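Hello,

Our lab assistant flagged a job as stuck in the queue for most of the afternoon. It eventually completed. Since we weren't sure the result was trustworthy after the delay, we are filing this so someone can double-check. Below is the sequence as submitted and the structure that was eventually returned. Let us know if re-running is recommended.
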Amino acid sequence: QVQLVESGGGLVQPGGSLRLSCVGSGFTKPFIYYNMAWYRQPPGKEREFVAHISAGDEIVTYADSVKGRFTISRDNDKNTVYLQMKNLKPEDTAVYYCLARYGGEWRGAGTQVTVSS
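-- returned structure --
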């Protein structure tokens, strides 16, 4: 059973930075086979896409709202995907989840990011 554990969330002032990590385990194939993504759910709103990094060729895509501020990356040796977030805004406040996809979809429990002065 795939398990994903996010970390790195917290309280940060507008304009600040955070780096989220998501460590996975229980994969039936090498981690490099899995497409990985970050989603977020702002308070009182639906879950929304943030960023995606593909398996193998590591092509990245971003939501328009985070382009130029967030960077997704992965370390296949560590079964880890990262989300570097810069110039954070109050509207980035949300629970951030990582997802793994390969013949199915798995999601972590999430990490809270709060952007407030």
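-- support follow-up --
The delay was a queue issue, not a problem with the job. The result is valid. The CA atoms of residues 36 and 100 lie 5 Å apart. The mean pLDDT is 97.
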